[in-house]
Write a structure and sequence with these properties.
By secondary structure, this protein is α/β, with parallel strands linked by helices. The protein contains 28 helices and 21 strands. The radius of gyration is 33 Å and the shape is flat. The structure holds adenosine-5'-diphosphate and magnesium ion.
């Protein structure tokens, strides 16, 4: 026995001697977990044991002495069981946690692995014989206790009969390393073969399962032996059906007259008769795993065949899911009307029918959203636990400030400012998402927030500062110009206290700015990623504003926040998110929605043109330019590679310049330019140097060029709705009538739903709802992080399910925020696994 296990036994013995008072070690047995696991791991104690010990000791202190005695006894039995069964060869071993380590560690004496053969990479067409009697197998499982499931789920796949090192490596490429991974490896789709049909009712094109008795088997070479054909005729009493397989000559020896087989596939036609080509088949006496049911189809990789993987999953799922303890407390399960976990996992892999498949998916999706919500609620609570400085803006000051703006605030802007004002005065850090459609006027709201923090609410002895970060230089400059006007002015602080910091700001100026930020003489800084650089420090940063937040990674947002202690945070986004989704994805943030445009905007006219009608677009462009307006022409990502993409845009710019608009100046903007080169092109465009700007989607974000009135989008069918809407938002920012022209790649894409939707409405929220229905949530999530990778089953467009999970999570969070009640222990563990180590700053 390894020394670490000996040590364990010693402590258990001591506990016994002390009457299980948890005094064998100072601080209780749980203290063992500080050092013991590392030692044990060094001595190659199997991971399963490590897990079991950890699980047992963690909850040990909370048990009664009787329960402690029981727990240690069971644990010890299990340890013994595992160390002995490992030595027993089990040629037909069930997928039990007989936990053979993945590789024998050097210096450790381990019996050679039970003789087992790697299956050939190419699977024979007969399925690996599926497990039959599931009953009785559990007895082989050492201990056979249901409470050990999490341990077993961590067992490596090599504990399965038929999976050796090389298969384990193949499976690892699919992310399958443990039994638990297998249980949660969901089918990509299903083929429904559960509709059995008698042969005389078959129709051409049917995808069916047919059961019949083999009548004849013939095998013959064709094309001078280059190809072989096996032909089988089966009968089911209503008629005969001819089956054909190419190049599988061995089938002739497998199938014999009189055999009952079940075949699944598509009904084809040959010389006027119905046939099946290369159907899946199996003898009917074995469990109908591949045919005659709803068959799961799994994602595959090299050397992993569908049938083989399905058989492995069948073993794992049917053996292990019944042993799982459900992490969702019964109370939640019944009030949300959910299947239990065992059934859900069984049914999601091998559904009995469509109805139970649906119920299984519901349950598993619920788990994901529920976990997501629990994480988000915790995050929010943690944020709210911190204190922040109070900034109280007096009424008369704020009125005067708003009164001096060049325009009256819209109702939505007013509400957003009121929300922010309340947050800043609350003494808790603000964590607010300001969501407003393109052009709804978010900048001025941010400016007022900055004014409250830097001018008004602050006690006069304090020198609080605000930082505003934008994703591109051109946007930062745009904000800088606007904010300088709004913030600096008579009776307020001077121009010197609002500064712009970009990557290519000259070094000497950077130094001045850094010094000003460090000594507090600069009140407001606007910039790009340059703000995050190490040498930038703040005397007293109290507000950080992040514009177009989806453009920033989690780390960057965290980096800006870390320049201060508990700063108030305002993130802004122009990506409209339906409320249901916002509550899920941004549930940790408070939400202000600006769903109202400043007055005087004209609706952008949107038209869908066929490629042949392009000339109409060109003449509109000519006439707009004649009126002094400017034009965007956008090209989609045509190929995967940036290079061919660049070629397309370059070629198009040349074509437009030379053939279509020889008298106009046509500029070019694409993703391969350096950031400063891009900004230079945009500046020249804004200054009117080009009439037409040909671009890839790099202009998508935030830029304000009020003189641009035409947005022509080529290959429009290739874009998502959210993106089309963003692009359209580049025009219509001035008072003049603007146009958005959508030209799809093919004539027949004119009826494309997204394009029609674009032509129907300018409302970003309406479009976002549609996009969510059509394409799921990918577009909205952007770089948002950890928990979302865990969404494999949940569709964020299932609003009712989201709402259900959210309410349940909220209720539970109110009862037991840290999941400390005994009935929530399994849930606490599962939640930990869901969030993994990826607990990031989700702002
Ligand atoms: P976005 O929400 O897309 O960031 P901006 O803040 O850039 O929008 O505002 C778009 C334009 O609308 C700017 O030119 C801004 O000056 C103007 N604007 C903002 N608020 C109002 C308002 N209440 N009335 C009139 N114009 C406004
Ligand atoms: Mg903006």
């Amino acid at each position: 026995m390894q020394p670490s296990l000996e040590k364990l036994r010693k402590y258990f013995r001591l506990e016994y001697d002390n009457g299980y008072q948890d005094r064998a070690i100072i601080g209780g047995l749980v203290k063992l977990l500080d050092l013991w696991p590392a030692d044990a791991r060094n001595e190659s104690v199997p991971e399963e044991i490590l897990q079991a010990v950890a699980a047992c000791l963690r909850g040990y202190h909370d048990l009664t002495p009787e329960a402690r005695a029981e727990a240690l006894k069971t644990l010890w039995k299990q340890i013994q069981g595992q160390t002995t069964t490992r030595r027993e060869s089990q040629p037909d071993a069930p997928p039990a946690a007989s936990a053979e380590p993945a590789a024998a560690a050097p210096g450790q004496t381990i019996q050679p692995a039970p003789a087992r053969q790697e299956r050939p990479a190419v699977q024979p067409s007969r399925p690996a014989s599926p497990p039959r009697a599931e009953k009785g197998r559990a007895d082989l499982h050492p201990g056979g206790r249901t409470s050990q499931t999490p341990i077993a789920l961590n067992a490596s796949l090599t504990v399965l009969a038929g999976i050796g090192q090389s298969h384990a490596r193949d499976l690892a490429r699919l992310g399958l390393r443990t039994l638990g991974d297998m249980l949660y490896y969901f089918p990509r789709r299903y083929d429904d073969y559960s509709q059995l049909k008698p042969i005389h009712r078959l129709n051409y094109g049917d995808e069916v399962t047919v059961i019949g008795t083999v009548q004849t088997v013939t095998s013959r070479p064709v094309r001078a032996g280059a190809v072989s054909i096996v032909e089988v005729v089966i009968q089911d009493g209503t008629g005969g059906l001819r089956l054909t397989w190419f190049n599988q000559p061995w089938l002739a020896n497998r199938l014999h007259g009189g055999d009952s087989i079940s075949v699944s596939g598509k009904i084809d036609q040959y010389l006027g008769r119905l046939v099946m080509n290369s159907p899946d088949w199996e003898p009917v006496e074995v469990e109908n795993l591949h045919t005659n049911r709803i068959v799961p189809i799994y994602p595959l990789t090299a050397n992993v065949a569908q049938k083989w993987l399905r058989a492995r999953l069948r073993e794992v799922v049917s053996y292990w899911s019944p042993k799982l303890s459900d992490h969702l407390p019964e109370s939640i399960r019944s009030s949300a009307e959910l299947l239990n976990l065992k059934t859900a996992l069984l049914q999601v892999h091998f559904p009995d029918n469509q109805e139970s498949l649906r119920a299984a998916r519901q349950r598993l999706a619920f788990d994901e959203i529920f976990f997501l919500q629990m994480g988000v609620l915790r995050q929010k609570r943690d944020w709210q636990a911190a204190d922040a400085r109070v900034f109280a803006a007096p009424d008369d000051w704020l009125e005067a400030r708003i009164g001096s703006l060049p325009f009256a605030l819209t109702g939505a802007q007013g509400r957003a400012v009121a929300d922010i004002r309340k947050d800043l005065a609350s003494g808790k850090p603000m964590n607010r998402l300001l969501q407003g459609d393109v052009g709804s006027g978010k900048t001025v709201v941010a400016a007022l927030a900055a004014a409250i923090v830097t001018e008004a609410g602050a006690p006069s002895t304090r020198t609080s500062q605000a930082a505003i970060m934008a994703p591109t230089s051109i946007l930062a400059e745009q904000h800088f110009r606007n904010l300088s006007q709004l913030l600096a002015g008579e009776g307020r602080f001077g121009v010197e206290s609002v500064r712009l910091l970009l990557g290519d700001t000259p070094e000497s100026e950077k130094e001045t700015i850094r010094a000003g930020l460090a000594d507090g003489s600069i009140k407001v800084v606007i910039g790009t990623h340059a703000l995050l650089e190490d040498p930038v420090t703040f005397a007293d940063l109290q507000l950080t504003v992040i514009d177009e937040q989806h453009r920033f990674g989690v780390e960057q947002r965290a980096a800006l926040r870390s320049k201060a202690t508990n700063p108030h945070l305002l993130v802004m986004t122009a990506t409209p998110i339906p409320r249901s989704l916002a509550l899920t994805v941004y549930g940790d943030l408070d939400l202000s929605v600006m769903d109202e445009m400043p007055p005087g905007r004209q609706e952008i006219e949107t038209h869908v043109l066929t490629p042949r009608e392009r000339e109409r677009a060109y003449s509109l462009i000519r006439s707009q330019v004649a009126e002094g307006r400017q034009v965007f022409v956008i090209y989609p990502l045509i190929e995967e590679s940036e290079k061919s993409d660049l070629l397309a845009a370059t070629a198009e710019q040349a074509r437009l310049q030379q053939e279509i608009f020889p008298n106009l100046k046509v500029g070019l903007l694409h993703g391969r330019l350096r950031p400063d080169e891009k900004d230079a092109v945009m500046l020249r465009f804004r200054e009117g140097e080009f009439h037409v700007l040909v671009s890839t989607t790099v202009v998508e974000v935030g830029v304000d060029i009020p003189n641009a009135t035409v947005m022509l989008i080529e290959g429009a069918d290739r874009f998502g709705l959210a993106q089309l809407h963003q692009l359209r938002g580049r025009v219509g920012r001035g008072a003049a009538q603007s146009y958005c022209l959508l030209v799809p790649t093919h004539e027949d894409a004119v009826e494309n739903e997204r394009l029609t939707a674009m032509a129907e409405t300018n409302d970003g929220f309406v479009l976002a709802e549609r996009d969510l229905e059509q394409r799921g949530p990918g577009e909205f999530l952007g770089t948002r992080q950890s928990g979302y990778a865990g969404l494999r089953m949940a569709s964020l467009s299932d609003v009712r399910m989201i709402e259900k999970a959210r309410l349940q999570a909220q209720a539970l969070f109110e009862r037991d925020p840290d999941l400390q009640m005994p009935e929530n222990q399994l849930l606490a563990d599962a939640l930990g696994r869901f969030w993994g180590n990826g607990k990031g700053d989700v702002s």
